[in-house]
């Protein structure tokens, strides 16, 4: 297996439109109505990663706690210090970090009374991510603070997801070697490949489906292709056919994958391939896949490597082959 992993430039093909992304949720906590009004105006055009923001507003720390309980996915908090008490804002920071244990939310302290909460002491004693005086936060500076905080929040979530996926892949590897037939193994590999794709990377109706339009196959000599397992729209494929007999766009993507790229992602379709021998390649094809991060690609590649090893082990164990395609429902 000496292929080089190359990520191709996508072929332009009409596919499902990219779904609108959910907005970033931010919570503004301040007892001054004017601050809320100014913040709404200053951030009215804010956008990051094609996502707008959704502003939630609280006028006391007590009200903020209720909103936080109802919205655990708040990305960022713009927080005043002095509200119903001189330390209401700092008490809320303690509640968020130490009581409900939310360490991912970015907290930016905005104060109009720096004497009540000196910057050096607050940053040293409280887990906040930025400290600003209200008088210095122009529209431009507020937007800069927003970009910095939300990018940090985004990257923290991505790191946590990658860790979860890697742990799942470790468990998956052991389970691959327990399958008794090629079709059963292929169906399991497809299911695991689909779970590695975040809902955000699905397109159109695929966002709501747990079963993808996908198949796994062996490509042998003379470009004959044996379908081992298939789901969705691919469920009607013949178990033994040739690449040329497949729909033109699908045939084209598979040909590119075989000739150039072990992982080929065109618009709306993903083909992951691994060479097992000179005349045998395994591949998984999944429809409805949007943008992929580099980590997603690497994890899918690792899954494919492990799957091919499991097929090789099955072959060496002389387990009885099955010519029946597994139809995944």
From TrEMBL:
This is DUF3369 domain-containing protein. It comes from Hwanghaeella grinnelliae. One of its GO terms (biological process) is phosphorelay signal transduction system. Pfam families: DUF3369 (PF11849). PROSITE patterns: RESPONSE_REGULATORY (PS50110). InterPro entries: CheY-like_superfamily (IPR011006), DUF3369 (IPR021800), Sig_transdc_resp-reg_receiver (IPR001789). The keyword Kinase does not apply. Keywords: Phosphoprotein. The keyword Phosphoprotein applies. The modification 4-aspartylphosphate is found at residue 80. Residues 25-149 form the Response regulatory domain. It comes from the Bacteria. The lineage of its organism: Bacteria, Pseudomonadati, Pseudomonadota, Alphaproteobacteria, Rhodospirillales. SMART domains: REC.
């Amino acid at each position: 297996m000496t292929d080089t992993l190359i990520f191709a430039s996508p072929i332009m093909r009409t596919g499902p439109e990219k779904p609108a992304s959910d907005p970033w949720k931010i919570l503004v906590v301040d007892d001054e109505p004017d601050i809320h009004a100014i913040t709404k105006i200053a951030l009215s055009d804010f956008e990051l990663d094609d996502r707008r923001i959704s502003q939630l507003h609280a006028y006391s720390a007590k009200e903020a706690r209720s909103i936080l309980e109802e919205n655990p996915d708040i990305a960022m908090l713009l927080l005043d210090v002095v509200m119903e008490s001189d330390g209401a804002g700092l008490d809320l920071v303690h509640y968020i970090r130490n009581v409900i244990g939310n360490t991912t939310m970015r907290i930016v302290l905005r104060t109009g009374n720096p004497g009540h909460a000196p910057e050096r002491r607050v940053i040293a004693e409280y887990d906040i991510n930025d400290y600003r005086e209200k008088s210095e936060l122009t529209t431009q500076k507020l937007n800069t603070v927003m970009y910095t905080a939300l990018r940090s929040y985004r990257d923290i979530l991505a790191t946590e997801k990658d860790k979860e996926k890697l742990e799942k892949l470790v468990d998956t590897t052991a389970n691959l070697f327990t399958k008794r037939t090629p079709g059963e193994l292929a169906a399991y590999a497809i299911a695991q490949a689909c779970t590695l794709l975040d809902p955000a990377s699905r397109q159109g109706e695929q966002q709501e489906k747990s079963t993808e339009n996908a198949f796994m196959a062996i490509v042998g000599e003379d470009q004959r292709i044996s379908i081992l397992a298939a789901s969705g729209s691919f469920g009607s494929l013949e178990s033994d056919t040739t690449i040329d007999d497949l729909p033109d766009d699908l045939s084209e993507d598979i040909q590119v994958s075989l000739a150039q790229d072990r992982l080929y992602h065109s618009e709306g379709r993903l083909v992951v391939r691994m060479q097992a021998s000179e005349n045998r390649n395994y591949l998984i094809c999944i429809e409805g896949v949007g943008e992929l991060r580099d980590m997603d690609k690497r994890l899918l590649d690792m899954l494919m490597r492990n799957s091919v090893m499991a097929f090789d082990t099955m072959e060496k164990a002389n387990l009885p082959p099955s010519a029946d395609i597994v139809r995944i429902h």
